Amino acid sequence: MSGQARPETTGSNAGATDETQLTFFGIGPQRTASTWLYTALSTHPRIAFPHQVKETMFFDQHFDRGLEWYLWHFRNRKDDQICGEVGPTYFDDDLARERIKECFPDAEIFINVRNPIARSHSLFRHHLSKGRVPNSFQGAIDKMPRIVDSGRYREHCMKWEESFGDRITYLVQEDIQEDPDTVLQFVFQRIGIETVEVPEQAKERINTATAPRSLALARVLSFTATTLRSLRLHSLVEYGKKLGLKKVYSGSGEVDPMTPEMYQSLAGIFEPDIQWLEQRLGRDLSIWRNFETGK
Fold first, then answer.
1. Which residues contact 178 (CB under 8 A, 6 or more apart)?
2. What is the pTM of this model?
3. Are 66 and 33 in contact (CB under 8 A)?
4. Per-residue pLDDT tens for 84-135?
5. Nearest CA to 55 among 268, 198, 230, 183?
6. Residue-wise pLDDT tens digits, 160-171
7. C-beta separation of 253 from 218 below 8 A
8. How many Å apart are CA 102 and CA 23, to the nearest integer?
9. pLDDT of 232-241, one tens digit each?
10. How far apart are CA 179 and CA 185, in angstroms?
11. Residue 226 to residue 220: CA distance in whole angstroms
């Protein structure tokens, strides 16, 4: 964890009223325990997240729909609640960062950091489970370079720090795994609300991914869910989940593994990012460089 005391703020949110200000964003990147953060914070009675959907993808994919469309997702917010969103696709998107800065310049920003090498393979597994990439780690990277590029912490974190200064807080995955309660207390402190006890089941690791039985079917259902959410039909997506539609295509198929050779190749690519994080966080991250300890 890393962060400084919150300064008093005097700015106002462009296009947002006092009732609709967002206090914080968890911006990922993907596969860095962002769902854990969302699930744990969702238990706090004073936090309002978008209704019926975890990620609105407003600032990167749906900004043309307008701020009113975005704020509609917080329509169930109670008067004593603060608003936040966990959107892990925002991290490496320059337009998303600029738009958040424009609309909510006083927001606290949480960046989750994880071994970028292991994170890349986890993101590959995630996209594979959606039918978006082939069951080949290198083939997936060739098709979707963002699997690697979204883990370039030095490049992207420096941009967020330039935009939000000391409103940036880093949450390290090893800290989350070893002492989730302390991490959550720190998050509560940063957003200025009282600490509450979070149920243990809300802090458990989730979102493991396997190879789907049918890539084509996984791709169709994933695209359909995305389309329905863009139309604000979140209840239909949730209903489909309850019916078990995901089980139709999901499976326990083996995923193309991370080899020691591929690990070392990515270690070379991410070395500047690991060094930058070591300096920025003031901690030794050498375990990330080793195939046996970094997985």
1. none
2. 0.82
3. no
4. 999 999 999 999 999 999 999 999 999 999 999 999 999 999 999 889 999 9
5. 230
6. 999 999 999 999
7. no
8. 14
9. 565 655 555 5
10. 10
11. 10
